[in-house]
Amino acid sequence: MGIKKVKANTPGRRGATFDDFADLTKFSPEKNLVMIRKRSGGRNASGKITVRHRGGGAKRYIRLIDFKRDKFNVPAIVKAIEYDPARGARLALLYYVDGVKTYIIAPQDLKVGDKIMSSQELIEIKIGNALPLQFIPAGLAVNCIELEPGRGAKIARSAGNVVYVMGVEGKYAQLKMPSGEIRQVKKECLCTVGQVSNSDHRHVSLGKAGRSRYLGIRPTVRGTAMNPVDHPHGGGEGKQPIGLRHPKTIWGKPALGVKTRRRGRSDRLIVRRRTKRK
Hints:
The structure is a single chain. The protein is mainly β. The chain folds into two domains: 18-202, CATH 2.40.50.140; 222-278, Ribosomal protein L2, domain 3 (Irregular), CATH 4.10.950. It is built from two helices and 17 strands. The chain has helices at residues 11-14, 209-214, and strands at 3-5, 17-19, 34-36, 61-63, 76-82, 91-96, 101-105, 115-116, 130-132, 141-143, 145-146, 153-155, 163-169, 172-176, 182-186, 190-193, 270-272. The longest helix is centred in the last third of the chain and has 6 residues, at 209-214. The relative contact order is 0.14.
């Protein structure tokens, strides 16, 4: 992938950058591997807004992606590299030798015509192959990692993400996350060799508010611009500071830099946190 700029015909296009889509080989999805995306507007089953600033946006199909890679020891050929509007990473369309078609998240440098496979045993370690962490050499880059064997990939699925295997000891493999955290994961968990594709996605600049609306993101209003009845930061004549000891959310809870991660059972599997605990 590359980043392209356009002529500054309008103020919105002056700062905008775009994906050039040069790495795509197919521009329409497989009809039996998509489903209609239902819109929620950020509302839960009760009709209450639980995620703010959602609504509108371009119509999109959801691509059905095989995160489990559970067709073991069956070779597949990469037939196409496709775009997915729901994520930054590219998708690879696989044709298995038994006639089954699936999508997977494409690793960097995976090409059309490559033969890949997934297995629970030791197979060739090359880009696109999926195998348990216990067979991965230390220092190798992997992505799409399971947290529990057979539950499907949960870690390192977004564009450009990469996790490094630090080593295997006992029942666990030690992984260095994109955040710098070192975490233990069961060595039987599957992973895909390589880095997630489209690493330049993070450099795309939207340039104008309208491109956020295409993505289904509605405007966000600052708390200081509201009235006191609507937000703890509201009120005052003109541009006033927050006026509180600590910044708060619209519901009055601490905000801006406050740790929100709850302690859970998986804490014991964290070898080194991404930041020092206070």
